[in-house]
């Protein structure tokens, strides 16, 4: 057995890696704190957040409000941008010092970049992209639920001997906890032993929060041939639902829009919670791009359009007849919430 | 700089839609399932071959798996790769990502003289995305994950790439040697050359290495070398759609729809 | 006034490569330019594609690619008028094969070939889904005792619209008491996609494998839905067993009618026009059979378009174009719909999945009143129904 750098006897606490970007904690980090809190409360173990960055100490309070008992902060100008070199070195030192039993990270590109590297450095097990986490009744071992084979198979993964038991979790799997600003916790500033020579990565460009990424949209309104190039209603509905607008291949071919929001086999594969598909016949090349949606609504003038086979709620009508009353109905329903 | 030597790591995976779980034995039924080269690994091959065209040099394909992988390595040769190594040994089997990345790293170390190691961002079966950063750590190379395009700068011995981030991207530059994971769909994989296919099938250099052929510690490969274990399996339920047709005037339909979509409003 | 001219050095080695790839097809060309002048793409583009130049390149051994190389639909119009009977298709496909070697090919095409390679069909769908078109009906596996093998093809198997054609054909065959089966999940892709995209080498491998598969399965008469599959089997495949007899379904239906196994007894008062697929009419001389099938339906009135039979106007789908993007406004089928409507017909009938798809797409965009597009098999099926009320039933397109 490949032995980890420290063993189960020395390990304790559930740690959560707190990913931050541009002065904000990533949503998934808060979600993980919430889940860690839930797992820890059952057993009376502490939850520790580990935060790296430059001038990020005030984020520690937010982590405590979300469930951390302690936050270890490594604050250094060399940690301003995520780099594999800098972050892997620093977090490894903090981990070897603190010896967590469990370490959770979000399954975001940078956290997966980091997790994969340090799992080997620590000679430990890493369970990727968990869709759920539990602690085993008797042993307290972390059980990570993952899906494989394109989602067809679910597996339960354990890491019995090596420490920390590492797992990454997809954003949106767990809920963001209600912040409890009355919570108290410890903030520990960790000395950072980093020099410029340690970081061989040059970040030439870093652009976040720019263009629309429809693959991350929770709500998608897609329009196709039926919109005849007029996306006004689709835009309005998407905006109301805080979602994005996408399209099938037809609008691209017709020159109404660019490829950026094209859904389908030769475009993007999306996994929104809600997809409203208007005026799209639903040929297979399109539906592969939305079939993972939690709920699909289809609006099409052709009762025999194949999209209806792939939808939960079906309306046979011209989208221009349906969308205006739908928009009104949504406004009315949201009006009570004061919007979000 | 000497000609570029690119290692392309590939994996042969079962076609995802055909895999079923035998819930009695709790194992994956692979019997009749067709295989394919892991889709992002096709993008890896295309990227490697394009870089070879740009800079000269060679592309070596490396895989770890059972003998059934061999025809697929020959496929990679038919696409234009120069050499292929298959790490194949019972003792490599049932490896998790720590043991897998270790074995691959040791195989690559033995091949030696590499500048760039390319892997697919993740495999369609395990989908952990952990092997590329794992290999980078074992071999102590720089790493770039989720690379969309890669530019080799031979004069400065660096590689530059655009990598996808949550809600954006960044462009980074790291020194060679580098291990990079390539996003699926980063390019369109070239079709193989049929004349080269004839050579690949007859004379293509495919070297099969057992565990004893490379420098690996027995307790660090396969099942013994895997800190994680599978504690149970279940078949995921496929999504059956409701297919409920809403009736009435558009206003009535809109109202009925909003009722059903309460959770999303 | 003197102009500087780029001079090109002709190389023996490249000439040999090009000559080999094109099979020497370009040799008889004397550059009259008729091909270029009459190419139907000139009807939808500012300029026709320069066929003459491509053939010249093939003659001289210059593999540089003219823009039109990938726009050609292999409709054969140019060849039908070529005074020296140059096999222009062969020259163009040969140049395309060389383009594959240089990897100077349109985006998206390698993906289709990989789909054929890994999945056995141009749609990239699992072979296990091939039989899904038979949902609700029973179609058995082919056995050598069957009169025919029904070769469904990738489009009729995987495209929901074309699946309806396959189902219609099955009912017609059953009505005629034909014993038939399909190869089910094992049905291979016919190779037309690879060939028309210009990958002659891959097409050759597919042909070789499939010809042997048909022989081993004991296939004699094979009836196809697509004229492109028919063309492959009839003109590109070797006749290994000696009695391999490919037919397009329009030919087979006529055989059934002539042998009185298929009878249309009910009136189907429908005004139709018939759009000849290039690969049936011009390429294989099959013009009468579909018409005779239509004319054997009582009450059906067949109105002809001007560009009919061997003079048919291509729908734009051949030559691998189904996998390439054709810009709006440059679609040949957009011209065909008004022509069909002008005959006064209610339905434009065709018998090719590409023609069907292109014509219906154009119809959706242009919208021509009550005009509909139907396959010959669908019209035959409609005519066989006991209560055939023309416009109602036609609009249901069962």
Please outline what is shown here.
By secondary structure, chain A is an alpha/beta fold.
Structural commentary:
The complex is a heterotrimer of chains A (340), B (265) and C (398). By secondary structure, chain A is an alpha/beta fold. Chain A folds into two domains: 8-198, Rossmann fold; 214-335, TPP-binding domain (Rossmann fold, 3-Layer(aba) Sandwich), CATH 3.40.50. In chain A, 25% of the residues lie in helices and 26% in strands. Chain A has a seven-stranded parallel beta sheet, sandwiched between helices. In chain A, strands 15-14-16-17-18 form a five-stranded parallel beta sheet. The N and C termini of chain A lie far apart (52 Å). Chain B is of the alpha/beta class and 265 residues long. Chain B has a single domain (4-220), classed as HUPs (Rossmann fold, 3-Layer(aba) Sandwich), CATH 3.40.50. In chain B, strand 6 (57-64), helix 2 and strand 7 (83-87) form a beta-alpha-beta unit. Chain B is globular. Chain B starts with a strand and ends in a 5-residue tail after the last helix. Chain C folds into three domains: 12-102, no CATH class; 109-256, Rossmann fold; 262-396, Rossmann fold (3-Layer(aba) Sandwich). In chain C, helix 8 (160-175) packs across helix 17. The longest helix of chain C is centred in the middle third of the chain and has 17 residues, at 200-216. Chain C starts with 11 loop residues before the first helix and ends with a helix. The model of chain C has no long low-confidence stretch (mean pLDDT 92). Chains A and B meet through helix 4, strand 7, strand 9, strand 10 and strand 13 of A and helix 3, helix 4, strand 9, strand 10 and strand 11 of B.
């Amino acid at each position: 057995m490949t032995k980890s750098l420290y063993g189960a006897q020395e390990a304790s606490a559930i740690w959560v890696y707190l990913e931050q970007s541009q002065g904000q904690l990533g949503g998934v980090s808060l979600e993980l704190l919430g889940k860690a809190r839930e797992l820890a409360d059952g057993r009376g173990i502490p939850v520790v957040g580990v935060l790296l960055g430059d001038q990020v100490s005030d984020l520690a309070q937010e982590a405590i409000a979300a469930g951390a008992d302690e936050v270890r902060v490594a604050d250094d100008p060399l940690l301003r941008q995520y780099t594999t070199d800098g972050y892997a070195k620093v977090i490894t030192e903090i981990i070897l010092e603190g010896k967590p039993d469990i370490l959770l990270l979000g399954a975001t590109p940078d956290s997966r970049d980091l997790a994969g590297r340090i799992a080997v450095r620590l000679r430990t097990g890493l369970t990727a992209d968990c869709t759920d986490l539990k602690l085993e009744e008797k042993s307290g071992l972390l059980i990570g639920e993952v899906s494989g084979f394109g989602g067809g198979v679910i597996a339960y993964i354990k890491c019995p001997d090596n420490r920390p038991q590492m797992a990454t979790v997809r954003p949106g799997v767990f809920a963001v906890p209600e912040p409890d600003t009355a919570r108290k916790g410890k903030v520990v500033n960790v000395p950072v032993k980093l020099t410029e020579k340690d970081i061989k990565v040059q970040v030439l460009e870093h652009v976040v929060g720019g263009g629309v990424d429809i693959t991350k949209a929770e709500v998608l309104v897609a329009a196709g041939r039926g919109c005849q190039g007029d996306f006004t209603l689709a835009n309005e509905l998407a905006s109301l639902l805080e979602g994005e607008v996408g399209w099938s291949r037809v609008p691209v071919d017709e020159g109404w829009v660019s490829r950026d929001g094209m859904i389908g086999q030769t475009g993007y594969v999306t996994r929104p919670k809600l997809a409203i598909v208007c005026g799209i016949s639903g040929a297979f090349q399109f539906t592969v791009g939305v079939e993972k949606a939690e709920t699909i609504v289809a609006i099409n003038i052709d009762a025999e359009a194949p999209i209806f086979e792939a939808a939960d709620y079906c309306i046979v009508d011209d989208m221009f007849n349906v969308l205006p009353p739908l928009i009104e109905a949504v406004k009315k329903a949201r009006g009570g919430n004061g919007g979000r | 700089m000497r000609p570029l030597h690119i290692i392309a790591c590939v994996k042969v995976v079962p076609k995802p839609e055909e895999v079923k779980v035998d819930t009695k034995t709790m194992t994956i039924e692979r019997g009749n399932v067709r295989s394919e080269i892991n889709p992002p690994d096709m993008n890896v091959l295309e990227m490697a071959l394009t870089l070879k065209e740009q800079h000269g040099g060679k592309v070596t394909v490396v895989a770890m798996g059972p003998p059934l992988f061999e025809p697929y390595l020959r496929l990679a040769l038919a696409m234009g790769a120069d050499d292929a190594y298959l790490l194949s040994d019972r003792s490599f089997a049932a490896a998790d990502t720590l043991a897998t990345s270790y074995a691959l790293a040791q195989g690559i170390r033995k091949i030696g003289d590499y500048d760039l190691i390319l892997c697919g961002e993740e495999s369609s079966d395990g989908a952990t995305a952990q092997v590329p950063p794992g290999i980078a750590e074992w071999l102590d190379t720089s790493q770039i994950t989720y690379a969309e395009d890669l530019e080799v700068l031979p004069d400065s011995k660096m590689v530059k790439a655009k990598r996808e981030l949550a809600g954006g991207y960044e462009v980074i530059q790291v020194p060679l040697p580098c291990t990079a994971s390539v996003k699926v769909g980063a390019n369109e994989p070239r079709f193989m050359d049929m004349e080269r296919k004839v050579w690949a099938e007859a004379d293509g250099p495919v070297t099969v290495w057992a565990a004893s052929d490379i420098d690996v510690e027995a307790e660090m490969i396969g099942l013994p070398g895997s800190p994680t274990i599978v504690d149970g399996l279940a078949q995921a339920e496929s999504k059956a759609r409701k297919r409920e047709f809403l009736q009435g005037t558009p206003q009535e339909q809109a109202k009925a729809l909003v009722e059903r979509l309460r959770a999303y409003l | 006034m003197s102009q500087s001219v780029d001079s090109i050095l002709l190389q023996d080695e490249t000439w040999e490569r090009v000559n080999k790839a094109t099979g020497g097809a370009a040799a008889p060309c004397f550059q009259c330019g008729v091909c270029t002048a009459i190419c139907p793409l000139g009807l939808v583009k500012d300029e026709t594609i320069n066929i003459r130049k491509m053939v010249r390149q093939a003659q001289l051994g210059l593999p540089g690619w003219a823009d039109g190389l990938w726009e050609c639909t292999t409709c054969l119009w140019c060849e039908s008028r070529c005074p020296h009977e140059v096999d222009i298709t062969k020259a163009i496909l040969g140049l395309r094969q060389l383009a594959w070697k240089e990897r100077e090919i349109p985006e998206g095409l390698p993906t289709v070939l990989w789909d054929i390679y890994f999945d056995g069909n141009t749609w990239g769908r699992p072979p296990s889904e091939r039989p899904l078109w038979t949902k609700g009906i029973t179609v058995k596996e082919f056995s050598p005792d069957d009169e025919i093998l029904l070769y469904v093809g990738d489009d009729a198997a995987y495209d929901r619209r074309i699946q309806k054609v396959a189902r219609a054909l099955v009912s017609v065959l059953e009505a005629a008491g034909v014993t038939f089966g399909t190869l089910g999940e094992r049905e291979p892709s016919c190779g037309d996609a690879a060939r028309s995209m210009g990958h002659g080498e891959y097409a050759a491998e597919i042909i070789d494998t499939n010809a042997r598969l048909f022989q081993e399965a004991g296939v004699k008469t094979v009836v196809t839905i697509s004229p492109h599959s028919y063309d492959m089997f009839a003109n590109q495949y070797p006749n290994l067993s000696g009695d391999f007899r490919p037919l397009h379904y329009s030919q087979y239906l006529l055989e059934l009618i002539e042998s009185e196994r298929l009878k249309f007894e009910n009136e189907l008062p429908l005004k139709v026009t018939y759009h000849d697929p290039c690969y049936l009419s011009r390429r294989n001389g099959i013009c009468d059979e579909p018409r005779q099938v239509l004319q054997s339906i009582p009450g059906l009135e067949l109105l002809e378009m001007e560009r009919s039979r061997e003079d048919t106007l291509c729908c734009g789908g051949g030559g691998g174009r189904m996998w390439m993007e054709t810009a709006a406004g440059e679609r040949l089928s957009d011209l065909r719909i008004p022509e069909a409507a002008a005959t006064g017909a209610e339905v434009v009938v065709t018998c090719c999945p590409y023609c069907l798809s292109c014509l219906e797409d154009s119809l959706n965009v242009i919208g021509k009143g009550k005009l509909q597009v139907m396959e010959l098999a669908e019209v035959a099926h409609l005519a066989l129904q006991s209560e055939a009320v023309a416009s109602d039933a036609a609009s249901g397109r069962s």
